[in-house]
Every structure is written in structure tokens, then in C-alpha cells.
Amino acid sequence: MSPYVPSGELVERAATGETAAIGRLISRAEANMAEARGALAEIYLRAGRSHVIGITGVPGSGKSTLVASLTAKLRRKGSKVGVIAVDPSSPYSGGAILGDRIRMSDLVMDPGVYIRSMATHGSVGGLAHATLSAIDILDFAGFDTIIVETVGVGQDEVEIAKASHTTIVVSAPGLGDEIQAIKAGMLEIADIHVVSKCDRSDANKTLVDIKQMLTLDAATSRLPAWRTPVVGLSSYTGDGYPELVEEIEKHRAFASGVKPSAAREASIASFRLQKTAETLLMDRFATSSARFRKSITERLQKRESDPYSLANELLTLSLG
Amino acid sequence: MLTRPIRVLLAKVGLDGHDRGIRVVARTLRDAGMDVIYSGLHRTPEEVVTAAIQEDVDVLGVSLLSGVQLTVFPKIFRLLDSKGANDMIVVAGGVMPDEDVLELRKMGVKEVMLQDTPPDMIVATLTRLVSERGER
Ligand SMILES: Nc1nc2c(ncn2[C@@H]2O[C@H](COP(=O)(O)OP(=O)(O)O)[C@@H](O)[C@H]2O)c(=O)[nH]1
Ligand SMILES: [Mg+2]
User: Fold this and answer.
1) Do B32 and A117 make contact, defined as CB atoms within 8 angstroms?
2) DSSP secondary structure letter of residue A239
3) Which terminus of chain A has a lower count of CB atoms within 10 Å, N or C?
4) Domain range for residue B98?
């Protein structure tokens, strides 16, 4: 694809489902390229048809394996499926190893499946800012269902719930900390709880624990009338998958009932606005604060003033 | 210089079942700030190219030890071309005789890094190749 293909042209090629064009648009969103901004805006205006499923849970709980099996099931029902697998960037180098694809190898040659790996790139909420654009792009390119896998390790890592129509929290036996993770704020965000690895004998205890916690915590799902189900499944045997697909469909139908759906769409839009504004603000701040930083840092280091006052001064100088 | 991390897909083609080497390279590249996608063992050229295009990587690194390089790479280039991805940088790694290295470079493989290439050199080479190509 050389020389440089204008993003506007990529939009038209992505509309016909051309993989290379979809891939390049996501890269340009990820790079925050000014040239692509108009194209992404157009895509947003023309998107909005897909069902977005967020899948989160602690590392090793079986999310990627589940995404692969679930995708295969949805494909058999005729849905085109886009998968976005988000893994954390290293806080030290900023780089990342993205290994979720290994579990999804069987899907690679299916033209009705698109898989994209993404790193969080220092985003605190567990979602890269470009994840939201990638959802738009796949939606626009005709994927009926978009599955977003993110690592969930606690309260701050559950942004995915704010960007998806159906949120699935995955727990598994044998990790020791599954209950911990649920306590740390993942209980409320789930529309569907999954206990994976139910081929293991210790899975039953995890199932019972989660059900118990759900009864203790009555106000669970964000949709008041939705009773959050707990689905036990095994990606090795396939047990439980029919039930999972059924619960997803139920939740989708439930959430498309006029009022809850509007509420969910409104909260997704509000989150989107917040997240985009934050990104813009951080970018603007990074650029405009550059020339003040050194001197203010020095003053802080010499304890001429306190962090709060100096940060305020920096903000005022940079952003007016 | 790019305004984002360099994206690399590391793939292993062929029957050989060792991935210790490629995992070490993956960590080295991550520690140099790159986003490294690892797609596992025993991939076919078709699978590797499809994944590389979906992931829109800057660099596709293919490692093989099984002596099939002279059939694998022509396939990879043909597939990349037919899918409109001829701006992808392809590099090779593994063990092979010098005459194969020359042959691969003629085909368009930008760099061949044999098993004893120091990690820093791999980082430097990929960084140079991507910055020569520029943003896309
Ligand atoms: N016993 C059992 N192991 C599983 C199952 N699903 C996944 N695993 C294993 O759990 C580990 C982590 O799986 P992965 O899908 O990568 O988890 P993730 O980190 O949550 O994405 C791998 O070793 C899988 O083989 C399952 O249904 N049963
Ligand atoms: Mg995973």
C-alpha cells in the first residue's frame, strides 16, 4: 500500500470489507494521525449497528480461549465477528507482547473474522484510546458482533463495561484470586458472569461462590430488571456454550427494549466523549507544557513551593 | 520516527517445534518499546500473511529452522502483493546457509538475522528499517 493512501480512500475500501484498509485505518487511529481525523469522524457517523461484547477477567481465566470458541459459535449463526484483544503495555518500556492470537489460531483463515491485537499504551482504564475507534471501524466495515477482550484486574480496569452493550466477566477455578477480583469491583459491571474451565473438579466451588456473592449484592447489573446469570462452561469440551450464546442473545434482546437500550447508548456516548476529551486534553497539555516543565520541576525539587501549587501554576501557564 | 510504537508480528513457520528463541526476541523488542504480536508455532504462510495484514504490522518477522525458506518466502511475498500489503517490511530469522541468505535478500527480505545475532542489533535493524520507510 505505498505510496501513502489518503484515509478518505481507505474509508471507501474498508466499506467493502478490504482487510488491509481496515487494518491501516486502525493503525492511523492508534497513531492519532491528524490526517485520519476526518475519516474517523465520517466512520463514526456511519457506524452504530454492531453488538459490542466486552470480555474481561483476571489473566489466565480463559478469556482468549473463550473468545475463540464464542466466535466460532457466532460464525455458525452467520454473524461476522470482529475481535479486539487488548493487553497491557509494559510500564517500563512502553512496549507490549500481545499473545492472545495464539488461542485464536483456528479462526485466522475465516474471512468473516477479523482479529486485532492492541496494547493499552499507558491508558489507565484498561482501554487504549484507539480501541474505541477500532470498534467504530469494524462496525462500519460490517462486522455484526465485536468482541473486545481486556485484562481486568480491579476497579480501575473496567472501562470496557462503559463501551460495550453486553459485558461478560470471566472467572476460573485454580487462580486463587478470582474472588478477590470479583470483590475489587468486577461484580457490578457484569451483565453475564462466566466461570470457565468447568471441566475441572474445583470449578463448582467457584460457581457457588459467585452465585452467593451475587445474591448478597442485589443491585448487580446496570439494567435494573436484568438478573445477571452465572454460566459455567468449558472451552475444552464445549459444555455451557449453548447457554452462553442464549444468555448473550437474551441480554441483547433485553437491552434493545426501548428504554434500557437508549440508556445504554447514552452512557456509551457519554463515556466516549469523556475519553476523547481526556485524550485531547492530555495531548494539548503535553505539547503546551513542554517549555515550562523544566523550570517548574526545578522549583519543586528545590522545595520552593509545593506540588499542588506548582501543578496549578503549570496548568495555568500551559492551558490558560 | 513514528509517533507510536513499532508493530511487529513474529511468526514461526514449519514443523519445527521450538519457540524459545522467538520468545527471547519478543521480549527484547518489547523492552525496546515495540508492540510485539506473537502468533504461535506451526503457522502456514497464508495464516502468517492474513494475521500480519489484520494486525497491520510494520514488520513481519518469520523464523524457520526447517530449511524451507526458499519456498516459504516467495509465497509470503506473493500473498502480501495480492492483498495490497507490499509496504510491509519482511525479515527472516533462524539458521540457514549463506547462499540462502543471499537468495532471500534478492527476493525482498530486508534483513536476515541468524541465530547468533545480538538482541541490540535486531532492535537497531528494525528501528532503522521502519524509519527508512516512514509513516504509512
Ligand atoms: N481446563 C481448562 N483450561 C482452560 C480452558 N480454557 C482455557 N484454559 C487454559 O487456561 C490458560 C489461560 O487461557 P487464556 O485463554 O489464554 O486466558 P486469558 O489470559 O484469560 O486470555 C491456558 O493454558 C488455557 O489452555 C478450559 O475450558 N478448561
Ligand atoms: Mg488473553
Assistant:
1) no
2) T
3) C
4) 7-129
